[in-house]
Structures are given as structure tokens and as C-alpha cells.
Task: structure prediction
Amino acid sequence: MTLQATYDGARPAAGAAARIDWTPYAIGVGIGVLSWIVFLVVNNPLGITTALSQVSGAVATPLLGAEAVAKNSYWARNLPALDYGTLFLVGTLFGGLGSALLAGTFRIEQVPEVWAGRFGPSPMKRYAVAFLGGIVAMVGARLANGCTSGNGISGGLQLALSGWVFLAVMFATGTATAFAMFRTAR
Amino acid sequence: MTLPVTGTAALALALVFGFAFGFLLHRGRVADYNTIVRQFLFEDFTVLKIMMTAIVVGGVGVFLMAQFGWVKFHIKPADLLAVSLGAALFGVGMVLYGYCPGTALAAIGGGSLHALVGAGGMLVGGILYALVFDWVKAVILPVGAMGRVQLHTLLGVSPWAIFAVLAAVAVALFVTIERMAAKRA
Result:
């Protein structure tokens, strides 16, 4: 079975699914121009995981106590707060919702097609690996001091050495992981 | 209006800019597990097309504005061991999860429950990292720490030369990818 057979690009949602076919080049230009605006207007590059680590501090507060979080040498640099970074995360989530509603593609997805084609329809299996992947991705993003947005796009476009090292290494290990997971049975 | 905007106005703008980012990611089909995993399987090049275009277009604009003194750079330190190890983990995690952190948020908005579950994992990862940060700071961050360096200063060339090369590589790649796709269709 090939993945092509189970997934043809656009979501099979009823009605206006075709409206989700903006070309990737237009999206890339859009994100590039958004970078200009964000640099100019709020003196800030696009980024996600620094703010996400603040949210993890907020989640840890009831578990570890507010004092332990405030004293932690990592969270102390970026205390949990509803500031620019964390509100940007809220905006990103609603941006996805807005696009999905306008395009008519909103749907509850438990198991995506490519996953189901290889590992079956069990939601619990997908959830377990997604949770594990989330942990690994976040630890990696913090160790690298940024994710695809902060290091990859914002670092890449500023010609930062850290950004280009990040892009090269993460594409290499991501490719190896994907081939190990999806190409063994074919 | 004086730039940069700060205070409450900046908080409102955070929602607007975040919304635009999430909207673009979703509309570009990268808030979709299938698109991301198929990029790493070389079956779909949407992620590569978006990122390379964003880097070249964004970079040319930001460097022009920097030359006029309108914007400042925000360069992350090139702590080479930490960046390499972190990126290596990130690549593995991104394929297991099927999203990167930004596309995950947009995907949650689009209705992906497994993106939401994985976001719980990301919060756990954030807590774990904070708990071991003192050790990381002492042992890993200093190894290969090259500071906040940019490629053009490192190579001793003009940034425009690098963007010219990047743009040429991007166009050549895009033409090849589109030709291959047309042949398959």
C-alpha cells in the first residue's frame, strides 16, 4: 500500500476543501512579510517555544509550588505571564481555527491518514506516540534554544549560524526517523 | 506612532500577529500531520517550499531594514553542542509528534486531538528541561559556544551574496520539484 492512495493532498472535508490550496510559495512570502512586520513593529522575531516554556512553568506552579518555579534558574529568565510571547501562542491557535472554519475543513482528527496507513486506526497508540514526540521535541527545542520558528525561520532569515546548524541537523534526524518508522514495512 | 510598539498595544498585536501566523500555517497545509511526515519521506515538499521562501523573502526585507537602521537583529547564541543535540532530538520528536510547536498550535485550532495530546507532552518536556537546566548550563552549553554569530561575518562575505546563493538554490530546487511532480501527474 502506498501513502499516495490514502492521502491526496487536500482534506476530504465536505464543501469548500479546495479553498485550502494556497500555494506554498504564497504562504512562504506571507510568513516572510509577517517577519518584516513583526521585526519592525514589536522588535521581536517569530518564535514559539520560549513562550511555551513559560506556559510549562505555569503548569508546573501547582505541582512544584510558585516559589520553586520562580527560583528555578530557567523559568526565572522567563516567568509565566500573559505577555507578548504567550499571547502570540493563543493567536496562533485561533489562526488555525479561523482558517479551518473559513475553509470549511474543521474536523476532529484523532488518527491522521499517513499514520493509520502504517500503524492502524487506534487513537490510543497515536496519542501515546504524539505525547512522547511532544516531550522529545520540546526538550530538543529548549536545548537548541528555539524550534522551527525561532531557530529555523527567524534564525535562518537572519543568517544566524545557530539557525542553519539547527535546520541541517533536524532535517537529517527527522528524515532518518521517518524512514525508520514508515519505510520498513514496504 | 513610535516603533517598536510596547505595553498593552503590543499585547493586542501579539494576538493579531499570532493569528496571522497560525492562519498561514493552516492555509499552507503544514498544520497537518500528513504534510509534515510526508516531507520527511520526500513525498511532499510543502514544508521545504514554505520555509525556504519565508527565509529568503523574510531575510532580504529584514536585512534591508537593518541597513536603514529600522530594525535590530535578534541572533541566538551558536552553542554548537547544545544546538546540534537539541536539533537532533527535535527532528526525532517532530516526526514522532507529526508537528513542530507552531504548526501544532494551528493544528489544535483546526481540530487535531492528537496535536492537543502532544502539546501536553511539550509542556511536560518544558518542565523536564527547566528541572535539568542547571546541569545543561554547566556541562553542555559551554561546549563549542561560538557566540551570536551570523554566516556572512563568519565567512567574511556580504549578506547579499549569501541571499543570492540561497535564492538561486531555492529556485533550482523548486523548478526540479515541480518538474518531478508534473512528470508524476
About this structure: Chain B touches chain A through 125 residues (CB under 8 Å).
